[in-house]
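ARCHIVE RECORD
Type: protein–small molecule complex
Small molecule: zinc ion
Source of inputs: curated submission
Record status: active
Notes field left blank by submitter.
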Amino acid sequence: MSDFWIAPSILSANFARLGEEVDNVLAAGADVVHFDVMDNHYVPNLTFGPMVCKALRDHGVTAPIDVHLMVQPVDALIGMFAEAGASYITFHPDASTHVDRSLQMIRDAGCKAGLVLNPAVSPDCLRYVMDKLDMILLMSVNPGFGGQKFIPSTIDKVREVRQLIDASGYDIRLEVDGGISAKNIAEIAAAGADTFVAGSAIFNADDYKTVIDDMRTQLAS
Ligand code: DX5
Ligand code: ZN
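STRUCTURE (tokenized, with ligand):
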């Protein structure tokens, strides 16, 4: 794994052959599997849950699975995803009544914990829980659907949160999610991100390796 992680979002994969899609994207050089959980309540769409995560583990996936919970409430799913083989579990602070407790529950369940901020949510809420975070995920689209356009104001937020992480001294990954492609990945990295979710840019391409290689070339530039 390089310092920059590419995290394909399986939201844009072909669900009819999900195991094969995940195998292919990992063979093409992806670092982690981004797993978008939607509940048709917190976001206006519905995807998959812990059983599908477990099915990927049973299929033989050993790469980290980065579970992005777009659900409300959050807590009941934490233990289930930990059991199902999640590596990271991230949730939106506005979806949990007791954010500190939910973060602690994730770590107690043996997973890495993270918070996800929607485009209009201020980073202020991170300040008092930095010691409980392994990942901060900044949404660069409004959550719910793949294939949306990157919201440019995210770049300033990435810079701000990078400073917050560096000043804290904690080892926290800074992930960005939505509208990322080889065209804008270098700019997002330059602002301070180290983990990049990409759904449609990868899964809508004919050759996953070409896209991932292209992203890595941009990151090295
Ligand atoms: C949106 C999801 C994203 C999404 C990214 O709610 O959290 O992970 O699938 O897809 P693209 O890369 O197509 O914007
Ligand atoms: Zn996501």
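CURATOR ANNOTATION: The two ends are 18 Å apart (CA to CA).
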